[in-house]
Write a structure and sequence with these properties.
By secondary structure, the chain is mainly beta. It has one domain. Helices cover 9% and strands 43% of the residues. It has a twelve-stranded antiparallel β-barrel with strand order 1-2-3-4-5-6-7-8-9-10-11-12.
Length: 127
């Protein structure tokens, strides 16, 4: 997985960290986990499941999908852009183009699963 990544808001305040598969708050306390097929809260409850083709679901057997992730972009089920990751600047932007998170550290290690993890845990994506 990845080493520690720092997450900052648009005001340059620490939001939290990603350390391997663990998502930590600004006090370095666990608040979630990024698994191979799910984003989980601190209690291990799946917030979103991720299929191999990037489709998102609330549970493995549930109907429909709230959206999908592809090439560093999160889309809702109507193909509307929700969040996008800009690897050159380390920014995660929302659908209006506003910076929501600045990622610092080895940003080359941020992939679709990490993007979904950040959006799910810090922004309650599709909650």
């Amino acid at each position: 997985m990845i080493s520690t990544i720092e997450l900052y808001n648009e005001r340059n305040k620490v939001l939290g960290y990603i350390d391997g598969s663990s998502v930590l708050d600004k006090k370095m306390k666990p608040i979630g986990k990024i698994d191979a097929n799910a984003i989980r809260d601190k209690d291990g409850v799946a917030l979103l499941n991720i299929s191999a083709d990037g489709k998102l679901s609330y549970d493995f057997d549930g109907p429909g999908s709230p959206g999908y992730v592809k090439e560093g972009k999160i889309f809702d089920k109507g193909d509307g852009l929700r969040y996008a990751y800009r690897p050159k600047t380390g920014e995660i932007i929302d659908e209006m183009g506003a910076t929501r998170v600045v990622v610092r550290g080895d940003t080359s290690k941020i992939g679709d699963r990490e993007l979904i993890g950040i959006a799910s845990i810090f922004f309650n994506l599709f909650a």
